[in-house]
Design brief:
- The complex is a heterodimer of chains A (143) and B (367).
- Chain A folds into 2 domains: 93 residues, HupH hydrogenase expression protein, C-terminal domain (Ribosomal Protein S8, Chain: A, domain 1, 2-Layer Sandwich), CATH 3.30.1370; 32 residues.
- Chain A is 32% helix and 24% strand.
- Chain A is built from 3 helices and 5 strands.
- Chain A has a 5-stranded antiparallel β-sheet.
- In chain A, strand 2 and strand 3 form a beta hairpin.
- Chain B is of the alpha/beta class.
- Chain B folds into 2 domains: 176 residues, Rossmann fold; 139 residues, Cytochrome-c3 Hydrogenase, Chain A, domain 2.
- Chain B contains 14 helices and 9 strands.
- Chain B has a 5-stranded parallel β-sheet with strand order 2-1-3-7-9, with helices on both faces. Chain B has a two-stranded antiparallel ribbon with strand order 4-8. A two-stranded antiparallel ribbon of chain B has the order 5-6.
- In chain B, helix 2 crosses helix 3.
- Chain B is globular.
- The N and C termini of chain B lie far apart (52 Å).
- The relative contact order of chain B is 0.09.
- Classes of the chains: A alpha+beta (143), B alpha/beta (367).
- At the A-B interface, strand 1 and strand 5 of A face helix 2 of B.
């Protein structure tokens, strides 16, 4: 039987600690205002912030739940959730063992990594044209 | 060095832009770089070529290599297949004996002046270096030869960085760190016993992606990973500030996750990334498992006295069981590296220990 760290009976006395959420939310507000004014996106690396669980709860509560959730499956799962604050995306990148390798707030119309890159658009167009030219059009034959 | 760029290799290996961008995003997070650098780093890497890496092991226990192979993010396989060309590592490579030595000689010849030399283990120097040899040649000789053509030397582990356990008193083999033997070459010390795996791979990654060695502290360690003490970034730090301490390993304070300072934690004087990068795929680090930091990434950690004696009983208070020579070195190193933060931590440590000693002299004897 595998015991997870969280199952070990050590409780953490966190009463009265934390306080990083308010500072972080001010930074988010500033970046969001800049995005609206100039279109320049922003990123905040949550993994390197000394946030405790109460800070995280406060962050989640203040930003709210949004409508969009996207998943990227490459070398593990990455999840992109728009918060209830439009333009603020909560992003988790996980490795193939489901370990958290990066956690970010991206302040942008949409997360940059989700956009199809220009060089791959061209490669995709060429591949599709080649299939059409070879009359390989049925779903079964397509890659 | 392969002529193909990393970008060309990625396309050849079917690695998509998104996969690589995710990888670089994780790396910038690991190195606490501005997150916007992930995309810039990905572009720089795609245009770079994989450097040749020659990894030599000397007076060591292979714990550093074990650690290196357990790097999760970046994974060691992604580093080996996509970012560097590991041309010699006698434990990992398929070749052995004369074939392995020929591969090393060929890599050194082909990449003269450009290869990265990675060293783990101290180097025995007494009696002409007879206490350590491979392929019929002393470690000392092998290091001196390989060091000549290296662009830079990366010391992996406390043994190659500072001498480590082989150099502990009475040091019968005359073990020395690389920096005592090689001069005139850039040397990066990734100390730790063993070092955090992601700190090893992250430093190599940073060298390839940025084309230069990282900024170093006074002991030659990358500031990005060794810029803070364990104490500075410890999740138990607020308890220290509140004066809440575990007194034994099974008391109410220990169960509540309070500060382990009084149980000998060396976090206030130890610079490393354990508290932020953590171990075993970021599962935890020693303090999270209920044991104090033993200060393994600092010089002479093995000779500083009991791991269970509070700090001021060692290097920063009474000399105790630290030799006068080492005590002087340690204080000098702490001043150089720690600056205001280190001095502040040491001063607080001293003050706290004086109070503790006055309150409970018997408990100060350590374990």
């Amino acid at each position: 039987m595998t015991i997870r760290l969280a199952d070990i009976g050590v409780r953490l006395d966190t009463g009265g600690l934390g306080g990083g959420a308010a500072a972080l939310l001010n930074e988010v507000a500033g970046l969001l205002e800049r995005l609206a004014r100039t279109g320049k996106p922003g990123l905040i690396d949550l993994r390197n912030m000394p946030l405790d669980e109460f800070d995280r709860e406060r962050l989640h509560a203040a930003l709210g739940e949004g409508e969009i959730e996207a998943t990227l499956r490459t070398d593990g799962i990455s999840r992109f959730r728009e918060t209830g604050t439009p333009g603020v995306w909560w992003i988790e990148h996980r490795d193939v063992r489901d370990g958290l390798i990066a956690e970010l707030l991206e302040i942008a119309p949409n997360p940059d990594i989700l956009s199809s890159p220009a060089e791959e658009l061209e490669r995709g167009a060429l591949a599709l044209r080649a299939r059409l030219d070879a009359r390989i059009v049925s779903p079964k034959e397509a890659p | 060095m392969s002529n193909a760029t990393i970008g060309e290799l990625l396309v050849r290996n079917g690695v998509s832009r998104r996969t690589f961008l995710k990888y670089c995003t994780a790396m910038t997070s690991l190195m606490a770089l501005p997150p916007s650098m992930g995309a810039a780093m990905a572009e720089a890497l795609r245009a770079a070529k994989r450097p040749s890496v020659i990894y030599l092991s000397f007076q060591e226990c292979t714990g550093c290599l074990e650690s290196f192979t357990r790097s999760f993010s970046p994974s060691v396989e992604s580093l080996l297949f996509n970012v560097i060309s590991l041309d010699y590592q006698d434990t990992l490579m398929a070749a052995a004996g004369h074939q392995a030595e020929e591969a090393r000689a060929q890599a050194m010849k082909d990449n003269d002046g450009e290869y990265l030399l990675v060293i783990d283990g101290a180097i025995p120097t007494s009696d002409g270096g007879v206490y350590g040899a491979a392929g019929g040649r002393s470690y000392l000789d092998l290091l001196q030869e390989a060091g000549k053509g290296a662009a830079a030397i990366i010391c992996v582990g406390t043994c190659s960085s500072f001498g480590g356990i082989p150099m502990a008193e009475p040091n019968p083999t005359g073990a020395r760190p690389v920096s005592d033997i090689i001069t005139g070459k850039p040397i990066v010390n990734i100390s730790g016993c063993p070092p955090v795996p992601e700190v090893i791979t992250g430093t190599l990654f940073q060298y390839v992606s940025m084309g230069k060695l990282p900024e170093l502290d006074a002991l030659g360690r990358p500031k990005v990973f060794f810029g803070n003490t364990i104490h500075d970034r410890c999740y138990r730090r607020p308890f220290y500030d509140e004066g809440k301490f575990a007194k034994t390993f099974d008391d109410e304070g220990a169960r509540n996750g309070w500060c382990l300072y009084e149980l000998g934690c060396k976090g206030p004087t130890t610079y490393n990334a354990c508290a932020t990068v953590k171990w075993n795929n970021a599962t935890s680090f020693p303090i999270e498992s209920g044991h104090g930091c033993i200060g393994c990434s600092e010089p002479n950690f093995w000779d500083k006295g009991s791991f269970y004696a509070p700090l001021s009983q060692g290097a920063f208070g009474k000399a105790g069981n630290v030799s006068p020579r080492d005590a002087a070195k340690l204080v000098g190193a702490a001043v150089a590296v720690g600056g205001a933060v280190g001095l502040g931590a040491a001063a607080v440590s001293r003050s706290r220990q004086q109070k503790l000693a006055a309150a409970a002299p018997d408990k100060m004897k350590g374990g």
